[in-house]
Design a protein that fits this description.
It is a single chain. The chain is mainly α. It has four helices and no strands. It starts with 5 loop residues before the first helix and ends in a 5-residue tail after the last helix.
Amino acid sequence: MKNPNEVEQLLCALMFMLTRQANNPGMSLATPIRDHLQWLAEHPETARQPMLRKTCRRLMLQWQGYDEGVGESRAAAATAAQTNLH
């Protein structure tokens, strides 16, 4: 993405997918949600926002676990929970 509003677009798409997932739990949007979190974590603009970058990385691990299955999601969530936000 070369648009100056990339981060805003990524966040909007992510919020939309999270809402869709919450409203339709049977539908799995884990992969695109994980991908968007990764793109946000790796985006140059988030380098100036370390808390956002760290949060995206932690959530990315959790959503990766959801994509891989329940057993792995618990392991990813446990790993993510060990990291302090502050």
